[in-house]
Specification:
Strand 2 (87-91) and strand 3 (96-100) form a beta hairpin. This protein folds into three domains: 18-131, Winged helix-like DNA-binding domain superfamily/Winged helix DNA-binding domain (Arc Repressor Mutant, subunit A); 144-232, Arc Repressor Mutant, subunit A, CATH 1.10.10; 245-320, no CATH class. The chain has helices at 18-26, 31-47, 72-84, 121-129, 133-143, 148-159, 171-177, 188-206, 238-253, 257-270, 277-283, 285-299, 309-320, and strands at 58-63, 87-91, 96-100, 105-107, 114-119, 165-170, 209-216, 225-232. The two termini are 39 Å apart. Helices cover 50% and strands 15% of the residues. By secondary structure, the protein is α+β, with helices and mostly antiparallel strands.
């Protein structure tokens, strides 16, 4: 996606923007802010196909019961993080810029049962783009993490994944990176367990990266730091796999309804999905998304199927329908 920045008639100027958008979203420090953002993105992902002119003064509601946290102080902090997000496009060569606050108003009141968020219409296209491809997978992976430290480690290791290692990370540096106050975890052994060991174990268990580490020691302190080694769960060809997944979703986003229907019929045949589920998938967007995502992962070689493709997809459908 590109943005036009020039003011004299808004002449189009090709400037790529994914890194700018990702940077804005990575400023969300709290799990709660990311959950609210994910809920907003889910609604945009489902409804962006309608006429854009209805999005003037678009408001979206995020029910608090899906957030896992309804404490006022935490909601207030999360709202601050959303409100401070910025998309900052600057073209120095042509001396122009475009600065957007995607969430100009965030509201909440006790007993509402939801957080109310206003979406800036200028930001909507960029937010919609973030519902495509690899970013969407990374967002969902991050939100499966329950520890705020696990989320932060996941972001850091994802950024450094191409380097495959992160060396000489001292314990004092980890305290700063994780924003640990002086009064927290006064014993290094406690900090290492709750901020390093347990969160990284959760990252290894739930995400697409796998972390190994070795201790750095000296005579005075048992552990003064770590060397981290960053691997994919399927290290070889990992980037190619995600490129294929992203291409798959890019193709889907440009399909006409009739083409999506034909694609869905082909998927149903391949995975022996009962015909009675056809209409249900079009009525239930979560179910449709789950089937399409599972097919994308299987086609890209991301899933290690222990039984058959039909049985695997059956489990995907059951979970998407809320069945166990």
């Amino acid at each position: 996606m590109y943005i036009c920045l020039k003011y004299n008639g808004m002449i189009k100027d090709d400037i790529q923007q994914p890194a700018i958008l990702n940077k804005a979203i990575h400023k969300f420090e709290s799990v709660l802010a990311k959950r609210i953002f994910y809920a907003l993105e889910s609604q945009i992902k489902k409804g962006f196909g309608v006429q854009k002119d209805i999005y003037n003064d678009l408001w979206l509601n995020v029910p608090t019961d899906i957030l896992g946290n309804q404490h006022f102080k935490d909601l207030d902090k999360a709202a601050d993080e959303l409100h401070k997000a910025r998309f900052n496009f600057v073209d120095k060569e042509n001396e122009c810029f475009n600065k957007i606050n995607p969430f100009p108003v965030v509201q909440y009141q006790k007993r509402w049962g939801h957080v109310k968020v206003k979406i800036e219409k200028e930001a909507l296209g960029y937010l919609a783009e973030l519902t495509q491809g690899y970013f969407w997978y990374k967002l969902k992976a991050a939100l499966s993490l329950t520890s705020k430290y696990a989320q932060r480690w996941y972001e850091l290791f994802s950024e450094k994944k191409d380097l495959e290692k992160w060396l000489n990370v001292e314990v004092d540096d980890i305290r700063k990176i994780m924003g640990i106050e002086e009064f927290e975890y006064k014993r290094n052994s406690d900090m290492i367990k709750w901020v390093v060991y347990d969160p990284i174990e959760e990252v290894n268990r739930k995400t697409d990266v796998f972390i190994e580490y070795e201790f750095i020691k000296n005579q005075k302190r048992p552990i003064i730091g770590f060397n981290f080694f960053i691997k994919g769960q399927k290290a070889k060809g990992e980037s190619e796999i995600y490129e294929r997944i992203e291409k798959y979703f890019d193709e889907l986003s440009h399909m006409k309804p009739s083409e999506i229907s034909q694609k869905l019929l082909a998927i149903m045949r391949e995975y022996s999905i009962p015909d009675k589920l056809y209409n249900e998938m079009f009525k239930n967007q979560n179910l449709l998304n789950a089937v399409l995502e599972a097919d994308a992962k299987i086609q890209a070689g991301k899933v290690d199927i222990q039984t058959t493709k039909a049985q695997y997809m059956g489990g995907v459908i059951q979970r998407a329908k809320g069945q166990k």
